[in-house]
Amino acid sequence: MSHMKAVKISDSVYWVGAIDWGLREFHGYATSRGSTYNAYLVMADKPTLVDTVKAPFKDEMMARIASVVDPVEIDTIVSNHAEMDHSGALPATIAEVKPSRVVASPMGLKALNAHFALECDITPVKTGDKLDLGGLTLSFIETRMLHWPDSMFSYLEEEDVLFSQDAFGMHLATADIFVDQNDISTVHWECEKYYANILMPYSNKVAALLADVDATGLSPKIVASDHGPIWRGKDIATALKWYAEWSEDAPSNKAVVIHDTMWGATAKMAAAICDGLKTGGAEVVSLPLASSSRSDVATEILGAGAVFLGSPTINNQMFPSLADTMTYLKGLKPKNLIGASFGAYGWSGEAVKQLNAILEEMKVELVSEGIRAFYVPTPEVLEECFALGEEVAGKLPKA
Ligand code: FEO
Questions:
Q1: Ligand 1 centroid from CA 244, angstroms
Q2: What is the distance between the alpha carbons of residues 212 and 215, in angstroms, rounded to a whole number?
Q3: What is the C-alpha separation between 63 and 57, in angstroms, rounded?
Q4: pLDDT tens digits for 320-362?
Q5: Alpha carbon of 115 to ligand 1 centroid (Å)
Q6: Closest CA to 58 of 66, 68, 46
């Protein structure tokens, strides 16, 4: 008998997912606390599985299912999201369980068929469609581009359980299945990090979805996402409040200084800018890229008011770490930022110009043409950096 057990989360719903304690990298996202892949078993007359897990964790999911019901009894599989951390185990699960139906959104049907040669057809379901599970009812809400074209929510009407796939999720490996069993500051950071790295480009859609859900009058008692712990009770209002706040893209008093250095010159400029920002009353976050992951940079940028980019010039280019981080950040489309660039150089010093071009492409309002230091910043250059920090702090909303 397996030690892997399901965890009951409502009268008829069980968590049957997998815990990936060792995960430290997730398609470019530094997952310093691991993750979970959440799958859910709805014990209706027709037992139903909502999502699966990453392929290598299929046996863990099956063992948890088997602690409640023989997996071959599963009648229906719902795929809320086709990304492979939730669908990787789907082909093998279908082969083993032989369900009578597999449902997904119309875009999910296309995505799943592009990924896999499944042994059965997929039935498309649209917003407002309902599925009779025998005694219980699942309804569906398509959530296109949150964060893939196929993404959708499922709602178990009789027990007010919202299966929200990636939304409201976080990369946090934990054996404590509910949010209220975990440290709330850890939950806040990991949930914000997840939002910043996965959902930030779609903030306008998040805001629209929150309004839609409000208009439908849905009042979930449980929000069960596909990653990390499950929301219940008053914590649901907390999650909705955080999402409403993050989706606003409102600038704050925070300035983020992203930089790297060769021999310490650009780091000295960064320190002077930070001093100026602090003196001017801004909240300051300095992120040297030698010790800051791109996904932590994204988290700090969410809701910031200003961004500074600092890079030395190496072989006529910006430092590779800046190119990496800014390529990533550009794709996440942070909004409503002001900013400037700086850096040391020895020959021609192209990095500041290149960083300015990136900021302009990101629609960041430049407050300076940039500050360059020839080899090593002089006291005058450091004074200029300090003054720029102070000036930018004065332009930010007050805390
Ligand atoms: Fe957790 Fe978009 O997959």
A1: 21
A2: 5
A3: 10
A4: 999 999 999 999 999 999 999 999 999 999 999 999 999 999 9
A5: 15
A6: 66
Cα distance between residue 52 and residue 146, in whole Å: 18
Evaluate whether 108 touches 130 at the Cβ level (below 8 Å). Answer: no
The class of domain 254-393 in CATH terms is: alpha beta
Atom of ligand 1 nearest to the CA of 227: 1
Q: b/e for 361-384, b at 16 or more Cβ within 10 A?
A: ebebeeebebbbbeeebeeebbeb
In angstroms, rounded to a whole number, what is the distance separating the alpha carbons of residues 88 and 115? 9
| Angular region, 373: left φ>0, alpha ψ -120 to 50, beta rest | beta
- Residue 102 Cα, ligand 1 centroid: separation in angstroms? 19
What does the alpha-carbon distance between residue 81 and residue 52 come to, in Å, rounded to a whole number? 10
Do the beta carbons of residue 154 and residue 164 sit within 8 Å?
Answer: no
Atom of ligand 1 nearest to the CA of 151: 2
Q: Is the CB of 20 under 6 A from ligand 1?
A: no
C-beta of residue 136 within 8 angstroms of C-beta of residue 12: yes
Sort strands 7-8 and 13-15 into parallel, antiparallel or unpaired. Answer: antiparallel
Query: Is the pLDDT assigned to residue 7 strictly greater than 60?
Result: yes
Per-residue pLDDT of 169-200, as tens digits, reads 999 999 999 999 999 999 999 999 999 999 99
Report the alpha-carbon distance of residue 236 to residue 67 in Å, rounded: 28
Tokens representing 232 are 């219940």
d(CA 202, CA 183): 28
The string of DSSP letters for 239-300 reads HHHHHHHHHT----SEEEEEE--SSSHHHHHHHHHHHHHHHTT-EEEEEETTS--HHHHHHH
292 phi-psi bin (left φ>0, alpha ψ -120 to 50, beta other): beta
What does residue 233 show for φ and ψ, rounded to 5 degrees?
55, -140
Spans of all domains in the chain:
7-247, 254-393
The CATH superfamily holding the domain 7-247 is Ribonuclease Z/Hydroxyacylglutathione hydrolase-like (3.60.15.10)
